[in-house]
Each structure stands twice: as C-alpha cells, then as structure tokens.
Amino acid sequence: MNAASKRVGILVLAAAALMGLASWVSYRAVGVGRAAPSAGLGLLWLKAEYGLDEDTFRKVSELHAAYFRECEQRCHQLETLDNQLLKDAVMARELLPKVEEELAKEDALCHDCRQAMLKHLYAVAQLMPEAAGQRFLAEMTAMLLPAAVHGERGSLQPRN
Amino acid sequence: MKPTDPLDDLLSQWPVPQADDPSFHREVWHRIAAGQDESPWAERLLNWWFRPRRIALSAAACVLLGFIVGGVAGAKNRTQARDVYLSSINPLDSHHPHYATR
Q: Following DSSP, what letter does each residue of A11-31 receive, concatenated?
C-alpha cells in the first residue's frame, strides 16, 4: 500500500466516523430509540413525546397493560359476534330481525371499545403533568375519534 | 571601505557557456510537467484536497450529511413508534393487534 492509498484510507475512515457520529447524535435527538422487550415501541414514543419521567412511565405502562387485557376480552366477544353475524347474514336472503339484533350487539360492543379507549386516554392524561396531559388529550382525540368513526386514521395534525 | 575580494575578480572572468539548444529551458520545464502528470490520479487529487480550507469544508459536509441522514431516520422511527401506539389503543384500527383475529 503506497502513501497515497493510506491517505485515502484515512480520509474515508475519518469521513465515515464523522458522518456516523453526526448521524447517531441526530437520530438520538429525533427518534425514540429501539424498543426493549419490556416496553413496546409505542410506549417509548409516548415517553419521548410527552417527556414522561421513569415513575410516570412505569404507571402509564401498567395502565396500558391493563387496558390491553380488557381490550383483548372485548376483541374475543367481537370475534364471536362477527362469526355469528357472518354466518346468519350469508344464510339470510333479507335483513332478518336476528341479523339486525346481531348488528346492534356489534355496534354496542364497538361503542364500548371506543368508550374504554377514551377512558384510558383520560386516565393516561391524568398521570402526566398538566400541560403534557392536555396536549396528549388534544392530539389523541383529534387522531382517534374520527378514526373510530370512519375506521381509518389520518396523519397526526395537532390543533392549536 | 570594504576590501576587494580576489574571488570577485576570478568570478567575473569565469565564462558561463550558453546552452547549445535555445529551447533548453522550455524543454526542461516541459519534462518536469510531464513527470508530474505521470503521478497517480489519487495522489494528484489528494494534493489538491489536502489544504486546510478544503479539509474543513469536507468535514463540515460530512457532519451535515450525517445530521440529515440521522434526522430522517429518527423522524421515521418516531412516526413508526407513534403509529404503533395509536394502533395499540385504537380497537377499531386495522393494525390493532387483535383486529386480525376478527
């Protein structure tokens, strides 16, 4: 290896090191990092976005886990209802009272789901410092309530 | 007054022969230039590059590029994490963890 090649090698290494370092600093400042098995990526976002301290984060994580367990139960109920509804709706040639009743049950369950979600949002907001909690509620309701109605989510648009 | 150096007289009498070829100087410089052109391109590039100002500018460009790449990746990571959270609490979202079972 001649002197020129060595100098090129040193230059390339120095450039890569500089870029890598700058990239790492920038990524750490903007991103939320990688999720550990004990905490999901979503919860990491919550922690970073609303500046939660460790104690609040632990409480929010516990609340999230409890909400998820309840959510799972309702999802199973909904699954059972859906299966029955599909079966009956396919068999019927018109809108039978039975199918209508199952649709109403499903709507009621979806309503319960949304209600539980809202309750969860309020509970999480209460754990946060006041300003962060208010911002959390404003952003989450703007994002999630229309989503629950239309069944799809748009991009986050914080409203002032 | 400074005494006369005998060497001065001797030097003034010394004849300097002129080069036979009048283009001697030009050819010498031409050969030097040709010799320089034969150096590897990487070496020429490095010689051009290794100036404090150019090195500083290159370092600044590397840092800026690194910041941009890291920032874009960080923003993507943040957006992804936000979507994961929203999906996890919205039971009617199509990416909700239990949605697929329905």
A: HHHHHHHHHHHHHHHHHHHHS
